[in-house]
Design a protein that fits this description.
165 residues; alpha/beta; three-stranded parallel sheet; globular
Length: 165
């Protein structure tokens, strides 16, 4: 869709995997500071949109990495739910913070979002330009093993439960 995509990961194997999916800049956060790499790669401008699933753990760093008029979109709270935010930084950069989830939305709103996905995204899936990334499929009876695998650092992509044969 025309975006230059930066991603972070913690292993060389996952870095190669992200590159194979088309990421433009892959940052191993165990070896490099993602804020420094974003600043360097963007010639000091920062990231226009940051999609964050960690929540409070990286909020301050995301604000550093953000561009002027940048947006941080929080879609998960894996790194905590309470974030101390320096509003002066946000004002200085005219940043926006969006926090969203599908879970608590009414069914009618989910249906509206689904129609947008079908209109804007699904044609790219049909053409093979986008594809879901499935790491592993577990039989439903192995739900505990599936959960353990999903929590591991080895998984790359979605972990699915198969309800029937």
């Amino acid at each position: 869709m025309g975006a230059r995509v930066f991603t972070t990961c913690g292993t060389a194997e996952k870095a190669a995997f992200c590159r194979s999916l088309g990421a433009d800049v892959v940052i191993n956060y165990r070896e490099n500071d993602f804020v420094d790499v974003i600043k360097q790669e963007s010639l000091g401008a920062g990231a226009d949109i940051i999609l964050d699933n960690m929540g409070s753990l990286y909020m301050a760093r995301n604000m550093e990495a953000s561009a002027m008029d940048g947006q941080i979109v929080v879609i998960g709270l894996q790194g905590g739910k309470a974030a101390g935010i320096d509003l002066s930084i946000m004002m200085e950069k005219r940043m926006s913070l969006h926090v969203t989830s599908l879970r608590d939305r009414p069914l009618s709103e989910r249906a509206r979002i689904l129609k947008g996905v079908q209109r804007d995204i699904w044609p790219m899936v049909s053409e093979g330009l986008l594809r879901p990334v499935v790491d592993r499929v577990f039989p439903f009876d192995d739900v505990i093993d599936a959960h353990r695998h999903a929590e591991s650092v080895v998984q790359k992509g979605k972990v699915l439960l198969q309800l029937c044969n």
